Amino acid sequence: MIRILTPLVAIAAFSQPAFAGNTAQYGLGIGISPFGGSLNASYHHSKKTSLNIALGGAPSMEGPMKPTIEDTEYTQTGESTWVGAFLNHRPFKDADWFRFNTGIGIGSIESELEDADGNVYKVEYNENPVGYIGIGFGSSTKEGFTVGFDLGWLQSSGPEITQTAGDGEDASEAIGDTFGFGNVLPNLQLTFAYNF
């Protein structure tokens, strides 16, 4: 994981001067995260503070990884649809590539987990709104193309988990106690934008 994150942070932080110019007022971009793709519109209130509105989601698809919960491997499929409003603040004058990011999201995240024995569980996040907090690298307010990388988490009251098929022992509680299916959902996002 560190081998993946280190180059992304370096690209986001150090590509800004090469691709960016004067301070911009607006930005349009696209992002990708575990919750799907997103379209982003930004208003740069100042060099330090930006408001970002995002519309995102993903169609139903099988996930790239197979989570293992209490020695049982699951095939995961999921879909999402959401909208969010986020405030980015760059606290350091000489490091505008570093940001604090906070906001709220409204929408739905649904997953289905199936084990090799045919036991199927539906995991639904439908509580609204949910809070987001994180840090970001890149995505400056300068004119031109920018790249950003964000690392944070969504805070919710947790999903509703129900067994929808199979006659094995109900593992809903164990699934809800697992990282990635509990109250906190981790987020990694890569964003490409154009400021003007």
Short summary:
The two termini are about 35 Å apart. The chain is about 10% helix and about 60% strand.
Q: Could you name the key traits of this structure?
A:
11% helix, mainly beta, 196 residues, 61% strand, Porin
Task: Describe it.
- By secondary structure, the chain is mainly beta.
- It is about 10% helix and about 60% strand.
- It has 3 helices and 12 strands.
- The longest helix has 13 residues, at about 1-15.
Spell out the blueprint of helices and strands:
Blueprint lengths: L1 H13 L1 H4 E4 L2 E8 L2 E9 L4 E14 L5 E2 L2 E18 L8 E18 L4 E6 L4 E9 L3 E14 L4 E6 L6 H5 L7 E12 L1
Antiparallel strand pairs: 1-10, 2-3, 2-12, 3-4, 4-6, 5-6, 6-7, 7-8, 7-9, 8-11, 9-10, 10-12
Classification by helices and strands? mainly beta
Low-confidence stretches: 8-20
Helix and strand sequence:
HHEEEEEEEEEEEHE
Mean pLDDT: 89
Oligomer kind: single chain
Shape: elongated
- The CA-CA distance between the termini, in Å, is 34 Å
Q: Estimate percent helicity.
A: 10-25%
Count of alpha and pi helical runs: 3
CATH class: Mainly Beta
Number of domains: 1
Number of strands: 12
CATH architecture: Beta Barrel
How is the CATH topology named? Porin
Strand content: over 45%
Largest sheet: 8 strands, antiparallel, barrel
